[in-house]
Request: fold
Amino acid sequence: MNLSSHQPLSSEQVASTCLPRQVKVVIVQCQGAADVLTAPDTIDLLRPLMHSALTIKELSKALDKPFAKVHYQVKKLLGLGLLTASSTFLAKGRTRTRYCASAKRFFVPFAMTSANDLKSFLRQHDAQWYDPLLDAHVECLQTRDLNMDSLGVSVYLDSENLFKFALTDDPAQESSLPLCAPEMDTLWDTSFYLGEEDASALQQEVKAVLAKYQAKRSGPRYVVRFAYAPWKG
Reply:
């Protein structure tokens, strides 16, 4: 199915599921919808509505954002066809509406993104995860009463003569900024160097660990990310 205009999806276009009127897949061909789905600051609004039907008030509370701003964004996403009215009910004599995503899956073709090459395309995707992780680490670090005047960038060779580049609040130490929450890892300096054979072995071990924990559904939620790539440095 293609989302090729700014009109909301009709009831004839969608299938009935536990979230009413959701289709399985929407191929986005509307630039406005594509922009929303590839921008970290606007995709946040859609995320909770992918698995729940919420009123604007409930969504505003879940996102901790002003009601007026969420109301405006919901109406915009309705106009783009990304949301649909799930159900209505009476509360205190007024009709309330719950909204949900109009599809279980949205596909944005490369041509509809703002990327002009593969590198910028991957960077755009990474921003969806990197920005929320960065915000969480900043919030955690701010609880430590850091003296901003003591922060700096440490460029050095470690004990194995490998180049390192890290943020730190202690010029004499090789370790990077510590965090107050033990269940959080640091973004600042988690890289280390391995040969191809060891890197391949580590990758297989990590896959096994991830497969184990992906089956778990416990809260609160934490995001775990791993990346492997040949390094020319």
